[in-house]
Amino acid sequence: MDKAGNSSTAGSAVAALQSVALAVLLALPLSSAYAEELPVYKLAGRDGTFEPTTIEVPAGKRFKIEISNEGKGPIEFESRDLKQEKVLAAGAKSSVVINGLKPGTYVFFDDYHPEQSKGRIVAK
């Protein structure tokens, strides 16, 4: 109790709030550092084809693919193997994050131009 006879509930609430705020602030640099360590692979789409046609990644490690549409029309990065798809308008850029893959080959293609050659991600 304080001098006025009140309990220190308000002081406890402030201390708890400060602890929560500190925990959030400490967690922020860790999450941004984790995102920065994610390997990034660039993929350019151009009217139905992708460059490079093969991306090699380490098995079991998360990674990001940055996709840019350098063609004249829309493209759709599609991979049924990875259960991923991303539509991009001409000139647009976007990315997909892929969780760690088992060793193997995973096919991707432009769903707007399915007759064009297919690309692949090889996890080793």
CATH domain fold name of the largest domain: Immunoglobulin-like
N-to-C terminal Cα separation, in Å?
Answer: 65 Å
CATH class of the largest domain: Mainly Beta
Instruction: Round the Cα radius of gyration to an integer and report it.
Output: 24 Å
**What is the count of distinct domains?**
2
How would you characterize this protein structure?
By secondary structure, the protein is an alpha+beta fold. The protein has 2 domains: 1-37; 40-123, Cupredoxins -  blue copper proteins (Immunoglobulin-like, Sandwich), CATH 2.60.40. It is built from 1 helix and 9 strands, in the order H-E-E-E-E-E-E-E-E-E. The strands form 2 sheets. Strands 3-9-8-5-6 form a 5-stranded mixed beta sheet, with no helix packed on it. A 4-stranded mixed beta sheet has the order 2-1-4-7, with no helix packed on it. Strand 8 and strand 9 form a beta hairpin. The longest helix is centred in the first third of the chain and has 28 residues, at 9-36. The model has no long low-confidence stretch (mean pLDDT 84).
What's the layout of helices and strands?
Blueprint (H helix, E strand, L loop, with lengths): L8 H28 L3 E7 L2 E3 L2 E4 L5 E7 L5 E5 L4 E5 L4 E6 L5 E7 L8 E5 L1
Task: Describe the structure using short key phrases.
single chain, 124 residues, alpha+beta, Immunoglobulin-like, five-stranded mixed sheet, four-stranded mixed sheet, 1 helix, 23% helix
